[in-house]
Amino acid sequence: MLADNRQKWSVLSGLFLVYMASNGITLHTLPILYPELMEEFGWRESEVTLPATVFFIVGAITSPPAGWLLDRYSSRTIITLGSLLLSLALLGYSTTHTLWELVAIYAVLGIALSLCGLVSNMVMLTSWFAESRGRATGILLMASSLGGAIFPLAVGIGLEHLGWRHTVLLSGVGVGVTMLLSALLLLRDGRHVNERSLQPATGAHQNRPNSEDGLMSIVRERRFLAVVFATGSLWFIIIALTQHQSIFLARDVGLEKGLLPTVFSLFFACSVLGKLGFGLLADRFDLHKVMAAATLTLALSLFLLSEVTLTKQQLIYPYAVLAGLGFSGAFTCIQVLIAAHYAGPFYGRILALIILIDTLCGALGTRAVAFAREWQGDYLTALTGMSALACLSALVIIKLREPNETALIRSES
């Protein structure tokens, strides 16, 4: 038992470092470069965020193949492959001179993150942690926020002293070394060691026998559609927010360039607390209520951000705190929600399918907010709309039935 626990925490430590480096730099730090790129190349909001949109679309398209691979082959091998590809793409980033070169780089980043990002990390974690899954998920996802708290400060110093090209080059080297060395901590998949880990958590949805008909019947369920609407809405909001807040704060609010990394670090430092805290709450209390509370916190932060102006810059800090807690809590609960409802033999494919849909929603959010900004000249309508969508998502989450409750209704009918 003790040896088994050591193996679990060794795997979680490796996944933590991989996820911190991969998501911390690609999702949470590279957007800091947008004002620099807009200044150097004269790109508009819709242009500078186009590579990120391609990144999310490619990541979405490649998620199902990644899920298929993860159901059949070693997660450790796939994560190592993705880590190498991601570090090479970051090195290529530092040499780009045109928008389409950057689009190509982001496409490669999308493929890489499908192999070493959320899907592969959650598949491996779920295979090892049948109990305390909420806590383990919160710890893992906290890594992304920790990376988001650390890397912006380092990149901010690099931008000030080295310029963005050398900063990205050094970031690529550092991320590559961190991820490849961290892969050594990963053991073979838990499903090959402890078959109990693949069983759903208490009250979880019992997947049907391993057949494509069973998978399709799950996908056609009303509950599946509700889960996808709730998670897709949150991804729409979260990705749009993380991609556009640097542009809003730097160009619309007029925040000093040196303060932008500080706000990002505060945002992601609070999201560290949010991911761990909401992960623990999800283990102790009703998951759906906890997730709704996090989503409403995110909605409140978006309203607060819409009130930030040049003369009311002091609102940036309470916004960063609430947004960090709300976005991270909602994101953590998404992963626990999917595992609670669908852990089992189809988990890799169901997770990949939901991630595909969610990521496309994130790409749509990035583009929609960019065009809204260019059309209206500000982000006010977009922020208000995202706040309302978060409230609607919270309502849908509350209405979701518990998995065992659904099974009881079926048996009675």
Structure description:
The protein is 79% helix and 0% strand. The radius of gyration is 20 Å and the shape is globular. Helix 5 packs antiparallel against helix 6 (99-116), helix 11 runs antiparallel to helix 14 (316-342) and helix 13 (287-306) packs antiparallel against helix 14 (316-342). The longest helix has 31 residues, at 222-252. The chain starts with a helix and ends with a helix. It has a single domain (2-188, 208-400), classed as Growth Hormone, Chain: A. It has 413 residues and is mostly helical.
Please give the CATH architecture.
Up-down Bundle
Q: Helix and strand string, N-terminal first?
A: HHHHHHHHHHHHHHHHH
User: What is the average per-residue confidence, as pLDDT, rounded to a whole number?
Assistant: 79
Top-tier CATH class: Mainly Alpha
Which superfamily, in CATH terms, is the homologous superfamily?
A: MFS general substrate transporter like domains
What is the number of strand segments?
Answer: 0
- Percentage of residues assigned to helices: over 70%
- Gross morphology: globular
Q: Give unreliable regions as ranges.
A: 189-210, 405-413
Strand content: under 5%
Number of domains: 1
Largest sheet: none
Number of helices, where a helix is a run of at least 4 consecutive DSSP H or I residues: 17
**End-to-end C-alpha gap:** 42 Å
Radius of gyration: 20 Å
Query: What class do helices, strands and sheet pairing give?
Result: mainly alpha
For this structure, the CATH topology is: Growth Hormone, Chain: A
